[in-house]
Specification:
Structural class: mainly alpha
Largest sheet: none
Number of domains: 1
Helix content: 55-70%
Shape: globular
Strand content: under 5%
Order of helices and strands: HHH
């Protein structure tokens, strides 16, 4: 169930790619304020899946140590 939810969320984020920086900032703020560790972990899995998919597609450079995600 959780993986289906992550996949659907990932598809939604990918469809809204032009708004990614603002969505990432809002999501980071939201996660920091979540009291539930499992929900935080769910969001981290989602972010990880999105980043790995973007790296695999070659649309972001994955090894740039000077950039910050959050």
């Amino acid at each position: 169930m959780m993986q289906d939810s992550i996949k659907q969320s990932q598809q939604w984020f990918m469809a809204c790619l032009p708004y990614a920086p603002g969505m990432a900032a809002a999501l980071a703020l939201h996660v920091r304020n979540m009291p539930d560790y499992e929900k935080q972990l769910h969001v981290l899995y989602l972010a990880n899946d999105i980043l790995l998919k973007r790296c695999a597609a070659g649309t972001i450079y994955c090894h740039d140590k000077s950039s910050r995600l959050i």
